[in-house]
Amino acid sequence: MTEKKQPGILDRIENIDRKVIYFIVTLAVILPLINPIGLPLNIAEESVNYKNAIDDIPDGSNVLCKIDMEAGLSGELGPAGVATINQLLEKPVKLVFIFFYRGDCPLVFVNNILPNVNGYIDTTHLGNKVYGVDWVSLGYIEGHESAMAKLAEDMHFVTVDQFGNKMSDLPLMQDIKTASDFSLLIHVGGGDNAPVLNQFSTPYKLKTICATAGVDYVGVLQYYKAGVYSGILNSLKGTAEYEFLLGQPGLAIVATDAISVIHVTLLVLIIIGNAIYIYKRMVKKDVKGGVTE
Amino acid sequence: MTISMDPGIWLGAFMTLAVFSYFFGPTKNPLFKFAESTVVGGALGYTIVIAGAKNLESLAYNKIVAGNVILIIPVIVGLLIYTRYTKNYTYLARIPIAFIVGSGIAVAAYGIISTNIIANNLVAVTGYLVNKDLATTFTNAWNIIALITSIYYFYFTGGKRQEAPPFTWLNKIGRYSIMLFMGASFGNTILARNALIIGRAQFLLYSWLGFSP
Q1: In sequence order, what E strands does B39-112 have?
Q2: Looking at the domain assignment, is residue B1 inside a domain?
Q3: Which residues have a Cβ under 8 Å from the Cβ of A117 and sit 6 or more positions away?
Q4: What is the rounded distance in angstroms from the CA atom of residue A105 to the CA atom of residue A90?
Q5: What does the pLDDT average to over A87-96?
Q6: Is the pLDDT of residue A293 over 60?
Q7: Of the four, A105, A249, B30, B163, which is 20 to 30 A from A119 by CA?
Q8: What's the whole-model pTM score?
Q9: Considering only CA atoms, which of A234, A23, A45 is closest in space to residue B188?
Q10: CA torsion sign, A28 to A32 to A33 to A35?
């Protein structure tokens, strides 16, 4: 009777139960959130430029805001939306919000973003800005890139706003006809980067900044390098830098320790996995070499 | 630490934990399936109301009532898409699809050329090569090489010439450049997924369980 060979320590680590990995990752997320470590934060140039682009908006200008994220992304990009609106509220500018990404994006905007903004009372008053006069939300517009092209050409293409008010009843919209009437376009969202640039920024030479999901960051970076975007925020990390620059710590700064710890944890796991794989391949090669010799 | 008394927060916490049960329980457990079906069903229902009813009112009904009667034509053409569910008139569904695809390509084409080709690639090739910072100059030079070789990698019309040096080298550099891009994208995807988990963990810890940030 042959004795079954017991798996070695390396085999055990290599075939570790996924639940153990999830448990380690869970701890790496929760512990720094409860007990922040205060790890240093490097400020990226594109985050500084994002803030500067909003600082540089001339007083009295109109700003087109596409704070366009579905519920699943609000954990990652919600803090960017809140911090961006907070900075905008400090300036004498008028805001028009638009949504093209998904049908639930305006709901996320009203329920998850606005209540966390400084000075939020209700949807009629956003800080010192009055609805219809200083800010307007056009709601979700179906049609994606074709609808963007049409709206850029004619802002009165939609007849009612997010809350069912007629466009003719909104004083702010009487002065706004096309995308040319805006000084800045802010896109906070996990998609639509190319369509926004194609239909608003390039044809109307509209200065544009964006806060993007980490998945899209590498794709968006090329537009920043080419000068198409004037500033970008990279996911929660970029938002933490932005909150630091604004001097208004929010949920993103609190999350930076968790981001760092979880990254180190994952890196260690990747290094261990690869080291075992390479070691086992080398051992296998040596054995094979021995046989042929 | 004060636990929330808001029923909405409790419902959110329950749904979050139900989804997270995927991590520690069986992958197809009833809690996860319940949360999955509820989210999909709720999202679909909401989208039909918002995308359908609200947009039909704003973009079609109000304008038709105001006298822009010609808009009835796109509404009828749009409704033809439902002929897919009939036996004899399925072919009519091709008309709105053809409109959507055709107009979509036409609208996107201008922007793609002006943004991606002119503004992006030409600037990458011509505008940013020399920089006072040596590392940036090297990165920019590498960007240009990666751009040209990646485009070359997708150039399939060279026939046998592509299989001989130096074209094989160009192909190889292009392939490695694409792999580098994909590796960086993958790294950022992991970053993004972590951010999603952190978002939910913040909700559970701060909004539900009442820990202070």
Answers
A1: none
A2: yes
A3: A82, A85, A86, A89, A126, A127
A4: 24
A5: 95
A6: no
A7: A105
A8: 0.84
A9: A234
A10: positive
- Claim to verify: residue B136 and residue B63 sit in the same structural domain: no
C-beta atoms surrounding A254 within 10 Å: 22
Q: Residue A158 in 3-state DSSP?
A: coil
| pLDDT tens per residue across span A197-219 | 989 998 899 999 999 988 888 88
Residues B136 and B62 in one domain: no
Last residue of a domain, one of B52, B67, B82: B67
Q: In the block, which residue shows the tokens 């002065």?
A: A175
**Encoding tokens for residue B89?**
């008139």
Q: What whole-number distance in Å separates Cα of residue A200 and Cα of residue A208?
A: 9
What's the structural domain count of chain B? 2
Q: How far is B20 from chain A (nearest CA, A)?
A: 10
What domain range includes position B3?
1-67
ipTM, 2 dp: 0.79
Is residue B149 included in any domain, yes or no?
yes
Check CB contact under 8 Å for B185 and A72.
no
Residue A104 has pLDDT above 80, yes or no: yes
Q: Mean pLDDT, to the nearest integer, of B186-191?
A: 80
Residue that the structure tokens 């940036």 belong to: B136
Last residue within a domain, chosen from B67, B93, B118: B67
Element (H or E) spanning B18, and its range?
A: helix B7-24
Angle at A153 between CA A150 and CA A158, to 5 degrees: 55
Q: Is residue B81 assigned to a domain?
A: no
| Region label for B43, one of left (φ > 0), alpha (ψ between -120 and 50) or beta (otherwise) | alpha
Residue B107 lies in a domain: no
Interface test with A, best of B122, B190, B202, B205 (most A CBs within 10 A): B202
The CA–CA distances, whole Å, from A83 to A89, A211, B151, B206 equal 10, 11, 39, 19
**Tokens standing for B161?**
């010439």
Whether B115 and chain A come into contact, CB under 8 Å, resolves to yes
